[in-house]
Amino acid sequence: MAMRRIGVLTSGGDSPGMNAAVRAVVRTAHTHDIEVMGIRRGYNGLINGDIVELGQSMVNGLMARGGTMLYTARCPEFMTKEGVEKGRDTLKYRGIEGVIGIGGDGTFRGLRDLAECGVATFGIPATIDNDIACTNYSIGFDTACNTAIDAIDKLRDTMQSHERCSVVEVMGRRAGHIAVYVGIAVGANAILVPEHKLDFERDVFEKIRYARNHGNTHFIIIVAEGAGKAIDVAAEIKEHIGMEPRITVLGHIQRGGTPTARDRVTASRMGKHAVDMLMAGKKNRVVGIIDGNLQDFDIFTALDMKRELQDSMYETAVVLSLSR
Ligand code: F6P
Question: What is the pTM assigned to this prediction?
Answer without folding.
Answer: 0.97
